[in-house]
Every structure is written in structure tokens, then in C-alpha cells.
């Protein structure tokens, strides 16, 4: 996002407001303490696995790291259940935790071939590594998500997406895949061969088996112009639809307790490279955290201070290859809830979410992200059947996030939202069946491929209504 560099420097127990070369140091309410960490080894001597934000953990009985598909098939056939594939651990839901076998495909990475402009990619490949690999051939994925630390398999399993009114989520560009079932059977699937497996597996939460590789469409590795600017939140709301129609990629972040929004657009260009500067998002978050710590007791003062510090910030521009610009480093940990709403409901829901947070939760300081995603036809895709607009709410990893379930999820559900599979939500069973028209078809394919339920941990059993 955007920051007035040096405007506010915030620490865990204090803040320094800097203006005109002078500084006024004020002691502010400190952050909450570091959340207690689980033991690194449990009573049975099993090592801890923990997700990125720290909210999910497990002590797997076994960990597998196959080197190739044949080894993966052999390992799955004898693995102790529940078998759960894991990538970068960037999901906030309990998709990966297991007391059985955790399977990492980190050793199964890279591009293994091409069919025309379609790349054949092993699913252990991290998105951040895939960009330069494709660029070597003058190609690129059509879009990338907000962060690029995920494995390709994890991104497909949870329907990870970027933003762009005419651009689908990553799984929407998959044209074929190889699925290794928990019995060790290897299935090739595309729209002509095993089409039901293909439609179920493209977004499958790792519940059918382990996808070893995919064939995926690529585009020309074009240069993009990235433009970032702040404006009043009301203006961002009023102009959002036009901007989604105008720009190749557009998103914006409502910044609670400031009255402001940060906009980000990307458009193709032949302009010379203008490198992206050093990361300023972390500094921006530190500024917002400092305002929360210092002035969280008085919303009018907090808004006034934010506008004084941030509203004169200059826009930022960068020009470079898309894979270098579309994703952002996110070193500050958080927990997140994101729902995908019909486009006609997205901005109404966003405005209500911001109003609710500003009324009920002065501890929140993370910006709220709004994106737009094109439709696709994968059975468990949140974008199945029509374009969707996403709204994502974040909470600092040290802060309580239960308000998301109590205050925010009811808003999303009232506006016919579908949850992001890797982010916090409470929906399961019949609730999901009511909003996914091919839900039963997916469960039928899942039962056929894994009749003993070896891929199902307790969370997935509850999600699918199987408990």
C-alpha cells in the first residue's frame, strides 16, 4: 500500500509522531503479548507442525517428502491416515493438521514440459519461484495472488486468486492434471478424459488425493505499470466499478478508522522499467498499529491523526514484469476471513463491514481488501456460476479474531457470500451444499476415489458433513 515515509513510527509499547523535523514521543497502550506457542515436541516425541499465522498446529505421526510421482504413489498406498498434503502453511483453516501423515511436495517442483503455451508444472512449485521460471520462456501466469509464498498445489486446492474483472483464479487456467489417489493409483484428468475427476480436483481441498502436476495456460510475459494511491474511502467506493472495468488488475483496501482507502491498479505497458521501491507496506501497518495503540480509545482523534499523517502521501508508480509486481511481501502475521460475494453485493457488504468494525472493534487496524474475480466452472470454486467480488478482513496475529465469526461472517452470509477455502469461516455440510450446486457431485467423486476416508482429517469430515 502507501505510506508517508517516516510519518509515524510505532512500537509495541509506544509511538513517535514525527512532523516538521521534530518528534513528540508519547507512551501508548502496548500490544497484547505473544500468543503462547505449542510445545515443539509432544508427549509421544512427535515434532510440531504449525501454520504461518500460528493459529493451526499438529504433531503428525509421519512426514513424507517424495522426490517424484512414483515415490509419492508408493508412499500414499502405505501411509497412515489421515493423509494431508501441505504447502507453505498459508491457510488459516485446519486443512493440513493431522495426527497421521503430512505430505510435502517441496521436492516435486519445477516445470517439466510444455504443450504449446501451456506449461506442465509440478505442484510443489512455489508461486514465487514459478514466475521467473516461466519468464525464462517469455511466459507468465495470467494473474497472481496478493502473496506468492504458496505452493501451486495449495493455491489450487483452496481456489487462491488475484484480482481482475476478466481474469480467473489460478485453477481456472488449469487444463489438465495428474491425481495420485490414497491407494497409489495415478489418474490423468482433463475435460475429455475423466472429466468429473477434473472438475472435482481443480478445487478439492486436498480431499481426493494429491495432485502431482498440472497443465496450465500461460500468457505473454508482459510489462505492467503499477499505480498506488490514497483517496477518501467514499470516493473509492464510488469509483470501484469503473476501475475494475478500466484496469487489467484493480483492488483497493479500506483502511478502518482513517476514512481512507488505498487503491492499486496494474495495466500492460511498453514503458521502460521503473523498479518497484523497497517494501513500505510493513511501515504502513506499523503506522496504523501505532495509531491504534495511541488513540484507539478515541475514534475521532484517531481518524484526524490518520488523515493528517497519511492524506498528503504521494502516489507510487512502478513498471516491471508482472510476476515482480502483482504479489507483495507480507511479513507481519495476521489471521484472515475472506468471502466471495455476488458482484452486485460486494460494495454494500464492504461498507457494512467497515461500519461494523468502526463501531464495535477499535482494536482492528489492518486494511480490508476488496478484489474482483472472473467466473469458472470447477465444482467447488467460489466463482462457479458467475463473477464474484471478494472482501477480506484481517486481524493482527496477537489480537482476538473471534469478532470475525460473531460480527463479520453474518454480514457476508446475508449477502450470499461463499467462504475462501483457506480462510476462517464456520460453514459446513448442508450450509455449503445450499450454495454450491455441484456439492453432491463432488462428494460422490470423493467417495469413489477415497472410500475409506484416508484423506479426511476431523476438520474435513465436519466440513463435508460426514461426522
Automatic annotation (TrEMBL):
Record-annotated FAD-binding PCMH-type domain positions: 56-221
Coiled-coil segments: none
Family annotation (InterPro entries): ALO_C, FAD-bd_PCMH, FAD-bd_PCMH-like_sf, FAD-bd_PCMH_sub1, FAD-bd_PCMH_sub2, FAD_lactone_oxidase-like, Oxid_FAD_bind_N, TAT_signal
Keywords recorded for this protein, A-Z: FAD, Flavoprotein, Oxidoreductase
PANTHER family reported for this sequence: D-ARABINONO-1,4-LACTONE OXIDASE, L-GULONOLACTONE OXIDASE
Protein name: FAD-binding protein
Record lineage: Bacteria, Pseudomonadati, Pseudomonadota, Alphaproteobacteria, Caulobacterales
